Amino acid sequence: MTRIFAVSTIIIAALLAPATAFADTANTPMLAEAVIVPKDQPQGRANVPGRGMTMEQVQRRWGKPTNQLGAVGEPPISRWVYDGFTVYFERRAVIHAVQHATQSSST
Fold it and tell me: Among 80, 82, 71, which residue's Cα sits nearest to residue 32?
């Protein structure tokens, strides 16, 4: 009877091991799967698009971007590159805008 219990315990453990290993990785985000921007992030940059603006609003205010990179992933994330900043969209709404680093001349 003890041997049957030991064998059944090993079989159950062997059957559950792959499921628990998958459960640990199932919630691990993939690269470029999502861009998370904290709501309390300061938005003190008035010369870049603000979070929530639509593509149409951005294009009306800043014009056509110098480069448009297509959507990647789910939800779809796309980029518009302007002189001085890049805008990241989730579907058709701004989720983040990043000012480009300025190069300083070294002496």
Answer: 71
